[in-house]
TrEMBL record, chain A:
Pfam families: Peripla_BP_6. Residues 31-370 form the Leucine-binding protein domain. Residues 379-398 are annotated as: Disordered. Belongs to the leucine-binding protein family. The keyword Signal applies. Residues 1-29 form the signal peptide. This is Amino acid/amide ABC transporter substrate-binding protein (HAAT family). It comes from Azospirillum brasilense. GO terms for biological process: amino acid transport. Keywords: Amino-acid transport, Signal, Transport. It comes from the Bacteria. PANTHER family: LEUCINE-SPECIFIC-BINDING PROTEIN (PTHR30483), PERIPLASMIC BINDING PROTEIN OF ABC TRANSPORTER FOR NATURAL AMINO ACIDS (PTHR30483:SF6).
TrEMBL record, chain B:
It is a multi-pass membrane protein. It comes from Azospirillum argentinense. The chain crosses the membrane at residues 12-31, 37-54, 61-79, 94-115, 144-161, 190-213, 225-252, 258-277. This is ABC transporter permease. InterPro entries: ABC_transp_permease, BCAA_transport_permease. GO terms for biological process: amino acid transport. Keywords: Amino-acid transport, Cell membrane, Membrane, Plasmid, Transmembrane, Transmembrane helix, Transport. GO terms for molecular function: transmembrane transporter activity. It is found in: Cell membrane.
Automatic annotation (TrEMBL), chain C:
This is Amino acid/amide ABC transporter membrane protein 2 (HAAT family). GO terms for cellular component: plasma membrane. The lineage of its organism: Bacteria, Pseudomonadati, Pseudomonadota, Alphaproteobacteria, Rhodospirillales. It is found in: Cell membrane. The chain crosses the membrane at residues 27-47, 105-126, 183-201, 233-257, 269-293, 305-328. The keyword Zinc-finger does not apply. It comes from Azospirillum brasilense.
């Protein structure tokens, strides 16, 4: 009894201290809600799962309170790109659930849909994934902890050029991110003296990739740059690449790391071996922080096999939100919260990261990785790093 | 010339895969008048069974294939008794659509619960790996295998429906159920058998086609348009028509993607519209089965 | 039935129970609009925090109503209705970004665009029936989606068309984040749409369309052109779908590729059959039921809502074949018996 009382007293004292420390507005402890909009059902359900698990890992490691405020995450399911529904869910989160923060977002249109809302309600929106560069230009309240196609592609194109490869064919899915990747690669690679001999845009719903492989073969390219959304299409593409003999013919396979994301590796099998990618995170990243992250994940969920780029996006996103809560002392003030994290730098499981003050996008090390089999399991082994890569696509004009 | 040959070979290979995963739907839709939108779900179940048999139990590919077909047929027979039997007959199409969509949702949720949302694979035996040369063009051995299986399926079904007692009775029952019943044909058992045939074919397609249409819970919904397209162009219930349709669509799609990749999707649907204009009831019009 | 010989699918959704109860249906139909209005307003007071969802429901109900005109009253089986909805949404969105911002004008733009697409594609494909027609409608919606995806400069492609900022309604009511204006606006448009649709259905033209659905040969024998009736009906329904799309664009401020997709078309069909095709109230009831259940289930268990919704669909088919709207008929009939 007295023990409980003492704890309560201590707690109160602690909170008061924090409140004084945090400045005005947080005179009492409060629950701060964060609304997470992501696919929890449907074809992209894995994404929502990785978001949620990473957030739970973060909360298990760092506690559920910050500056005396309890942070509670509320999840809303948005199974596919559906901006109108995204807006309605965000509206519900803000008006009904009274969330102080919006977060999540796998698809670009879903993230873009909430721009007017976050401006009107003055709440910050931390994007865990949606990777089109233009998003953060649409509202000063967006902060992004993932990557953009430009960010991953520019160092890759430079690397390919340095290998002495002169002729490359690009093959991308025919939608926003794919076209971003194609443009970024072509610009950078041709500036470095290479030549893009064929630019193939593949329909998103393609199931059979044999014709594209024939085209790549006919183009006489020494290597390909490929980007497809993670999932069945990537699998089909990578399998076709090795099945039709392009791999055996010695054509090199480059691309952003989405295509060899960890959950898909067991299915890709040997078709994935030798693919060279650039990306912001690999499960195989060598650092204590990453090992702790994976260990905690395994402890909580029994396996850390599906940990991938969306996991660190959410993990670091949670970190950014915690710092925002701290800076605003639990008061809802989006402009101030975003201001507080501009320029903020920290060590993440993926490596050193920083929020660029201008683009509000994460500046980070982009790693060059080769997919290989190690101890019977496929992994993306980091072989080199390109530190301090910004979003090259920010205000690239479009 | 070589390019053209390459397109045709790739197109035929793709078309045969399309055929083998759609023909089951053609059977149920054409011979039983059931718009079975759960066709993809049945194929997916079989794929998961084969995947589990190979990866979880370590069984050989052929055993997995047979087990998958048997399991799917046996598992869906109660569904025929409990659900499908209530919605037979052409007055019920909307009910059929709704019921089979509902069933699909349930199966998708079940698979998602049991196996999780990540992709699954059916490992191929060594004999089906690698490539085989056809003239100047080489294609994966697995595809050559599917082409052979597809051809065998066409012949087998044609023989079954045209040359056997079962086929004759079935066609009689389709044309006039009352008359058939009056002649002493036990239509109920006939329907059960045909339903089993349809799901068995779906299962075969699900397993053989898994290289092209990878297994994940949304498989059941993702490819249903593809199946419907083949059946519509071929004429429902028409086996040879389905094969011709699948090959035509496969070649058109391959040619479109090769020549003008970024308009690949247009080619497929434009071809669909044109074919359906010329042959509104599918190839080989008016000749059921 | 032509499906007999060709293996085509003929969709015939005539409600089996209701046919014997014309007087009650009439009475119910008469009370429908005041009842809908009352329910809509009651929801406004009861659930002031769910206006975002309710706005979407109202706009979607108009879209499903449009499908009901086509399927329930014309017997046209379609899985491509989103072609009209999406075209309306994009037309309104593009107009809002570049030309005008008045919400009523935007609805008109959307309706016009939807009607135009329906007229052109309807004239092309409505000679077909059954499965062939079904496939043609799917092909149309897929091609429209590809066109939208390709026209990135105009539509934003897969990123969606954002930046739609309609001016205040009548210059007075702003579309703010609480969604009061949006909801009441959407509700009003739905009610007007419902009234107009009822007018059409009960007009000689509507009766003729029903005649075409039941017996095209007789209509032809009486000197009418079944196909002309159907194309006209399709175009009229296209206007409704276009307005619904524009309404969604105006109230949500963004349009995505999902609004011209096969799955959005299929979803409309599911909602309609759930509510009961062939009666206008069915469209509204089906939409409200489906979207509410989806919303509630997804909130309770985002991982497995599909199971519940699947069972719900199957249960409706097996135990309530005329859709939810037939429940009222059953109750009335049960009481009298």
């Amino acid at each position: 009894m007295s023990g409980t009382f003492r704890k309560a007293l201590l707690g109160t004292a602690f909170l008061c201290a924090l409140a004084v420390d945090g400045g005005a507005g947080s005179a009492w402890a409060d629950t701060i809600k964060v609304g997470v909009i992501a696919p929890f059902s449907g074809p992209f359900a894995t994404v929502g799962q990785t978001f949620k698990q990473a957030i739970e890992v973060y909360q298990a490691q760092h506690g559920k309170t910050v500056a005396g405020n309890t942070v509670e995450f509320v999840y809303k399911d948005l199974d596919q790109a559906n901006p109108a529904q995204s807006k309605a869910l965000a509206q519900e989160l803000v008006v009904k659930e009274k969330v102080g923060y919006l977060a999540g977002f796998f698809f670009t249109p879903d993230a873009l849909a909430v721009a007017p809302l976050i401006d009107e309600a003055n709440i910050p929106c931390v994007i865990f994934n949606a990777a089109t560069s233009a998003i953060t230009e649409k509202s000063p309240r967006y902060v992004r902890t993932s990557f953009t196609l430009w960010q991953n592609t520019v160092p890759l194109a430079e690397h390919v050029a340095k290998q002495g490869i002169r002729k490359v064919a690009t093959a991308v899915s025919d939608y926003g991110p794919g076209i971003d990747g194609e443009t970024a690669f072509k610009q950078t690679f041709e500036k470095s003296g290479g030549k893009v001999v064929d630019s193939i845009r593949m329909p998103l719903k393609s199931t059979d990739f044999a014709p594209f492989m024939q085209r790549i073969k006919d183009s006489g390219a020494e290597a390909i740059y490929a980007f497809l959304p993670a999932g069945p299409t990537t699998l089909g593409f990578a399998r076709a690449f090795s099945d039709t003999g392009l791999k055996a013919a010695g054509i090199k396979f480059f691309g952003p790391g989405d295509i060899t994301q960890e959950p898909d590796l067991p299915v890709l099998g040997d078709a994935a071996v030798g693919i060279t990618t650039t990306f912001n995170y690999s499960q195989a990243h060598e650092s204590d922080l990453n090992r702790q992250f994976l260990a905690k994940h395994k402890e909580l969920f029994g396996s850390s096999d599906i940990v991938t780029f969306t996991s660190v996006g959410a993990y670091d996103g949670a970190h950014v939100i915690y710092r925002m809560v701290e800076a605003t002392g639990g008061k809802s003030d989006g402009a101030k919260a975003v201001e507080a994290v501009k320029g903020m730098a920290w060590e993440s499981p993926r490596g050193p990261v920083r929020i660029d003050p201008e683009s509000r996008h994460v500046t980070q090390t982009i790693y060059l990785r080769v997919t290989e089999r190690k101890d019977g399991k496929l992994q993306n082994t980091e072989v080199a790093g390109f530190p301090d890569q910004p979003d090259y696509g920010f205000k690239a004009g479009k | 010339m070589e390019t053209l040959f390459g397109i045709v070979v790739d197109g035929v290979a793709y078309g045969m895969i399309l055929f083998i995963i759609s023909v089951g739907l053609s059977v149920t839709l054409g011979l039983m008048r059931v718009v079975n939108l759960a066709h993809g779900a049945f194929a997916m179940v079989a794929g998961y069974v084969a995947s589990y048999a190979a990866q979880g139990l370590g069984l050989p590919y052929a055993v997995g294939l047979v087990a998958a077909i048997l399991f799917t047929v046996l598992a869906t027979l109660p569904l025929e008794k409990l659900l499908y039997r209530r919605i037979y007959g052409s007055a019920n199409e909307l009910a059929q659509v709704l019921l089979t969509i509902g069933l699909t949702f349930v199966i998708v949720a079940g698979i998602n619960y049991l196996f999780g949302p990540t992709l699954k694979r059916i490992p191929l035996p060594d004999a089906l790996l690698g490539t085989v040369a056809i003239g100047p063009k080489s294609i994966p051995v697995h595809r050559a295998f599917v082409i052979a299986m597809g051809a065998a399926t066409v012949l087998g079904l044609w023989w079954l429906l045209e040359r056997t007692d079962f086929g004759i009775k079935l066609r009689a029952a389709v044309d006039d159920p009352n008359m058939a019943a009056a002649l002493g044909i036990r239509t109920e058992r006939l329907y059960t058998a045909t339903f089993a045939l349809g799901t068995g074919l779906a299962a075969l397609g699900g397993v053989l086609g898994a290289e092209l249409l990878p297994l994940e819970p949304y498989y059941a919904i993702r490819y249903i348009v593809l199946f419907l397209a083949v059946v519509a162009v071929g004429g429902a219930g028409n086996i040879l028509g389905s094969a011709a349709a699948a090959l035509a669509l496969g070649i058109v799609d391959t040619a479109g993607k090769y020549l003008i990749p970024s308009f690949g999707e247009f080619f497929f649907y434009a071809a669909l519209i044109l074919i359906l204009f010329r042959w509104p009831h599918g190839f080989f019009q008016g000749r059921a089965a | 039935m032509s499906g007999r010989h060709t293996g085509a699918v003929v969709i015939d959704p005539s409600p089996p129970v209701a046919a014997h109860e014309p007087r009650f249906r009439r009475a119910l139909g008469g009370a429908a609009v005041p009842l809908l209005a009352a329910a809509g307003l009651a929801a406004f007071w009861l659930f002031p925090n769910d206006l975002g969802l309710m706005t979407r429901i109202a706009a979607t109900a108009l879209y499903v109503l449009s499908l009901d005109l086509v399927l329930g009253f014309g017997g046209i089986a379609t899985l491509g209705h989103a072609a009209m909805f999406g075209t309306g949404a994009y037309a309104a969105g593009i107009a809002a970004v570049h030309l005008v911002s008045d919400p009523l004008v935007l609805l008109a733009v959307g309706g016009l665009a939807g009607g135009l697409v329906a007229l052109v594609t309807g004239a092309l494909i409505l000679h077909a029936r059954g499965l062939t027609l079904l496939m043609l409608t799917i092909a149309v919606v897929q091609i429209v989606q590809e066109v939208v995806n390709k026209a990135r400069d105009l539509t934003g492609g897969s990123d969606g068309l954002s930046g739609i900022e309609p001016s205040p309604l009548f210059g007075l009511f702003r579309f703010d984040m609480f969604g009061r204006t949006s909801y009441l606006f959407a509700l009003a448009v739905l009610l007007v749409g419902f009234l107009v649709a009822r007018r059409i259905v009960r007009s000689p033209f509507g009766l003729a369309c029903r005649g075409v659905k039941e017996d095209p040969l007789r209509v032809a024998a009486l000197g009418g052109s079944p196909r002309r009736y159907l194309v006209t009906l399709y175009a009229v329904a296209g206007v409704f779908a276009g307005v619904a799309g524009a309404l969604t664009a105006v109230t949500s401020g963004i349009v995505g590729l999902d609004s011209v997709s096969f799955s959005w078309s299929a979803e409309a069909l599911v909602m309609l059959v759930l509510g009961g095709a062939g009666r206008l109230v069915g469209a509204v009831i089906g939409t409200v039921a489906f979207m509410t259940i989806h919303h509630v289930m997804a909130a309770i268990d985002p991982f497995h809502w599909m199971l519940f919704i699947g069972l719900f669909l199957m249960g409706t088919v097996l135990f309530l074949p005329g859709g939810i709207a037939s429940l009222a008929d059953r109750l009335i009939k049960g009481n009298r018996a």
